[in-house]
Every structure is written in C-alpha cells, then in structure tokens.
Amino acid sequence: MSVREKDNPELYTRIQEQNLLRQYDLLSNCIEIGLEKGIEAFDKYTLWAVNYAAVANIAQFGGRYREDPILVGKHIPPHFNNVPNLMDRFFSLIHENWTIVDHPTLLAGYALWRLNWIHPFVEGNGRTARAACYYLICLKHGRLLPGRKIVPERIRENRAPYYAALTAADCAWDEGKLDVSVMAKYLEELLKGQLTEA
Questions:
Q1: What is the pTM of this model?
Q2: Domain range spanning residue 69?
Q3: What is the pLDDT of residue 1?
C-alpha cells in the first residue's frame, strides 16, 4: 500500500513528514545501540530499517536495496547489480577508519556523499544518508547530541550548500580522488549551529 504524490499531494506530504518524525525516533534508538555496541552496529540492517521508516506508505520497496536502474538528476548511480558490493565497501571503509580518523565530521561527510552517490534504495536515499551522517556524528562525539534542530533538519532547510558539497566530492571522485573535505567542513558548521542553540 502506498500513496503517490501526484494522486494526493497533501496526503503524501503529511505522510512524508510523519515518516520523518518516526525515522528520527528510530534513529535515536539506533544511535543508543551504536553507543553501547560500537561502530560495528552501523550496518546494512540499520540502514534498511532507517530507510523503511522514511518511506513507509509512499514507496513499496522501502528498506531493500534497489534492483532496477535509477536516474537522479544528472547523476547516473551505479548499476543495481553493484549496489550490495558497493555498500559492503562503504561499511568497510567506515569501520576500518573509525579509530584512525579523529576529525568529528569527516566520516559522516563521507557517508552523506557516498550514500547519495551509490543511491542504494528506490526512494528515500537523501533522508537515509542524512540519518546515517547524523548517526556517525553522534557516535564520534560519544553521545546523543543536544539541540532543538539537528543536523539533518538543518540540511533540509538550506540545500544549496549541501548540493555544492556533494558536487565537490563527485568532481574529486571523477578525478580518481576521495575528497569529502568540503562536505566535512559544511557539516562542522551545521553541527556548531545545533550545539550553539542547545
């Protein structure tokens, strides 16, 4: 069962907003588990659950990797057959570098960019990427962070710098480099704003 935006835009928007609230509640639970169990708790099952919460009743394949081609503006995500392997590599990079990288938003920036680049789900990729990013920020800080408006909400409010940071990471990748420094700096500023208002 799902509602299509074109059939009932008002209901679709209301369901999307309710899903977002449920996703944030679930994300808080996931972060608490991650704080208890460590970075290995950040896995595909966590992302599947967070994605499902984001797209319940608006997409029929929530919480599962896509099995069809997809277009995202000018970006052509990798072939769906490559998604499971790319996601395994995604988690591996984060797990293997967790204790090496001290920067508070670098791995979160990588997650935000890479999940958007892979686009592993049929729907809700941006919402899932922002949730994953925030999960990693909180784990790096060792706690659920205070603040009236959290980083994912701040990204949603002003998307232009977010898109610019994604583009910068895409350009670096196209040149054979992994560089998410623009994204990490952008997230640092959003995090400062969240903590300042706490």
A1: 0.94
A2: 9-196
A3: 63
pLDDT per residue over 45-55, tens digit each? 999 999 999 99
Question: Which pair of tokens denotes residue 3?
Answer: 């509602």
Evaluate whether residue 138 is within a structural domain. yes
Q: Please state, in angstroms and rounded to a whole number, the distance separating the CA atoms of residues 160 and 65.
A: 27
In a domain, 118, yes or no: yes
Residues pairing with 75 in the sheet: 72
Give the CATH number for residue 87. Answer: 1.10.3290.10
Q: What is the pLDDT of residue 72?
A: 87
What is the residue-wise DSSP string for the chain?
A: ----TTT-HHHHHHHHHHHHHHHHHHHHHHHHHHHHH-GGG-SHHHHHHHHHHHHTTT-TTTTSB--S---BTTB-PPPGGGHHHHHHHHHHHHHHHTTT---SSHHHHHHHHHHHHH--BSS-HHHHHHHHHHHHHHHHHTSPPP-SS-HHHHHHH--HHHHHHHHHHHHHHHTT----HHHHHHHHHHHHHHHHT-
Residue 38 gets the label, from left (phi > 0), alpha (psi -120 to 50) or beta, of left
